[in-house]
Write the structure tokens for this entry.
Amino acid sequence: MDRVVDVIKQAIENEVRAKTFYAKAADLASDGEAQMVFIELIEMEDLHARRLVEGFGSVLSADGVDGAAFLADLEADVEKTLVHDQIELLKNAEIRPVIDFAIEMEAKARDTYLDLKTRVEGDALQALCQELADEEQNHFDLLTEARSGADTPIDERPAL
């Protein structure tokens, strides 16, 4: 079983990875709705990483990890945070698989925070985990809606 500190560090890395992935996906998206969802998610994922560092700073430092420095190192070379599957998806330039992958990322993030909630002590940390899980569920829902829009031909979409 992973140590709590390792789960927190992985969660921070996943948020930076998601932010980077969404920035590249926004550049790729030709569908305005999907592009706007990706742009919105960039800021949200950045905020999640910072909230993790702030909220779990004492847990990390108790294990000798400087959360702010860990985050800064990840952000200094964000290209290294992307995994092979993400890079290949982005190279193929097809929006549907990119959205599907993003939906999977959000589901995994939500589940990670729900798992972390059971591992940490203290109402404040458990509440933070629940808030992050709820926000990841909202991201999942946004992306699911964007996928539906991407599947509907432009001439069949309802007028605004």
User: Anything to note?
Assistant: The two ends are 49 Å apart (CA to CA). The chain is about 80% helix and 0% strand. The mean pLDDT is 86.
